[in-house]
């Protein structure tokens, strides 16, 4: 039997133009104080569409319909504009997913007076070159994580499962009654951690699901993204970017205390900035706890960048990012500043070739050296 796990995010939507008046502000580290997600360390697939031309379909994806890379005047960077009744498939070549991995992505809802659904499915495909139809998820077991936008514009998140035995339909069971709210036009960040059958799912800073044996055992090898409109007389759009799929986690205590060196790619920054992204909180918290438990340990924090841009500017950026990490560990977690030194190497010591988005993502890292 072919297994499929489906994450269903459902919303009716208002326009980005209307949302511009809301002046959304970026999340702060403080707002993520209960966030314990730690990204996988070895990046297997990454795409922020920076290598794609505006108006083109992205090079590293496949589809059975249409989509295009766009920019918008609310959020920086490039985004894939997804359309209703279309399936999107990232070209991940591995035959089987590892036991432990994480995925992350950003989304913004677009459109005017529209409603629809966005689905992320974990599945096994015999032929990855053949993109499944958006309306044909039957024949698989399914898990549905649902986000709805009500008629008054509020967003409601809830979680339920639908398990199928190969036929349409199946029992539906609520597995989490947590209700969250959001606003139309806001960017939201999804984080998912898979540890064998354990499944943890976060919307922004909130953990909405954590079950130890949720995933059926299967040889998962593909992520499928599906768009679907609820109304036949409307088009449904959403913007999607910063998709990161990475293997495993790092034993922070062992790496830093026993081996004397910790390399993390879980401390993220805004593009060309030393501002730490709020979703880095879980990684920073783990490192801070090890330093709190080992009060005599001092560390040197070293920033590294990819090779994009000017070499001197990259060195400066890496130094500023290391200083930001030191400042956060001191200010947000109470680690004495005298225990931390900082430096930056720019792109001079790459961990991977700077020839692919994945290589560049692996090179954007922070090192902690035990002194």
What's the helix and strand layout?
Layout: E1 4-13, H1 16-19, E2 42-47, E3 61-63, E4 67-70, E5 79-83, E6 86-90, E7 100-110, E8 114-123, E9 142-149, E10 155-163, E11 171-182, E12 187-195, E13 198-203, E14 206-211, E15 222-229, E16 237-247, H2 252-258, E17 261-264, H3 281-293, E18 299-304, H4 311-331, E19 340-344, H5 357-363, E20 365-370
| H/E element order | EHEEEEEEEEEEEEEEEHEHEHEHE
Proportion in helices = 10-25%
Number of strands: 20
| Helical run tally | 5
Tell me the structural class. mainly beta
CATH architectural name of the largest domain = Sandwich
Query: How does the overall form come out from the CA principal axes?
Result: globular
Largest sheet: 8 strands, antiparallel
| Strand-residue proportion | 35-45%
Spans of at least 5 consecutive residues whose pLDDT stays below 50 are 1-24, 138-173
Please, could you describe this protein's structure?
By secondary structure, the protein is mainly beta. It has 2 domains: 4-247, Jelly Rolls (Sandwich), CATH 2.60.120; 252-370, OmpA-like domain (60s Ribosomal Protein L30, Chain: A, 2-Layer Sandwich). The protein is built from 5 helices and 20 strands. The protein has helices at residues 16-19, 252-258, 281-293, 311-331, 357-363, and strands at 4-13, 42-47, 61-63, 67-70, 79-83, 86-90, 100-110, 114-123, 142-149, 155-163, 171-182, 187-195, 198-203, 206-211, 222-229, 237-247, 261-264, 299-304, 340-344, 365-370. The strands form 4 sheets. Strands 2, 4, 5, 7, 12, 13, 14 and 16 form an 8-stranded antiparallel sheet that branches. The chain starts with a strand and ends with a strand. The model is unreliable at 1-24 and 138-173 (pLDDT under 50).
């Amino acid at each position: 039997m072919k297994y499929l796990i489906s994450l269903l995010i459902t919303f009716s939507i208002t326009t980005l133009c209307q949302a511009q008046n809301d002046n959304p502000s970026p999340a702060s580290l403080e707002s993520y104080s209960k966030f314990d997600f730690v990204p996988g360390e070895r990046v297997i697939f990454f795409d922020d569409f920076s290598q794609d031309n505006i108006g083109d379909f992205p090079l590293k994806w496949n589809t059975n319909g249409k989509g295009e890379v766009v920019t918008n005047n609310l959020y920086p960077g490039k985004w894939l504009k997804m359309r209703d009744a279309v399936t999107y498939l990232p070209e991940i070549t591995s035959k089987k997913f590892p036991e432990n991995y994480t995925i992350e992505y950003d989304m913004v809802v677009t459109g005017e007076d529209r409603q629809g659904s966005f689905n992320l499915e974990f599945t096994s495909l015999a032929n990855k070159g053949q993109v499944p139809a958006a309306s044909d998820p039957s024949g698989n077991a399914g898990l549905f994580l649902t986000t709805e936008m009500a008629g008054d514009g509020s967003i409601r998140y809830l979680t339920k499962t639908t398990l199928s035995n190969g036929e349409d339909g199946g029992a539906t069971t609520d597995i989490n009654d947590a209700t969250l709210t959001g606003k139309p036009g806001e960017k939201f960040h999804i984080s998912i951690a898979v540890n064998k059958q354990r499944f943890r799912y976060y919307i922004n800073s909130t953990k909405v699901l954590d079950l130890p044996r949720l995933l059926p055992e299967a040889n998962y090898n593909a992520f499928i993204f599906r768009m679907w409109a609820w109304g036949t007389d409307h088009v449904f759009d959403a913007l999607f970017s910063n998709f990161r799929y990475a293997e495993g986690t790092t034993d922070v205590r062992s790496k830093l205390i026993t081996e004397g060196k910790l390399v993390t790619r879980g401390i993220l920054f805004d593009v060309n900035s030393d501002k730490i992204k709020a979703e880095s909180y879980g990684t920073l918290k783990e490192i801070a706890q090890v330093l709190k438990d080992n009060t005599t340990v001092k560390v040197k924090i070293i920033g590294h960048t990819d090779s994009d841009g000017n070499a001197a500017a990259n060195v400066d950026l890496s130094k500023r990012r290391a200083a930001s990490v030191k400042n956060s560990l001191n200010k947000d977690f109470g680690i004495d500043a005298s225990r931390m030194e900082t430096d930056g190497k720019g792109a001079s010591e790459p961990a991977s070739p700077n020839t692919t988005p994945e290589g560049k993502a692996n090179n954007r890292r922070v090192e902690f050296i035990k002194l």
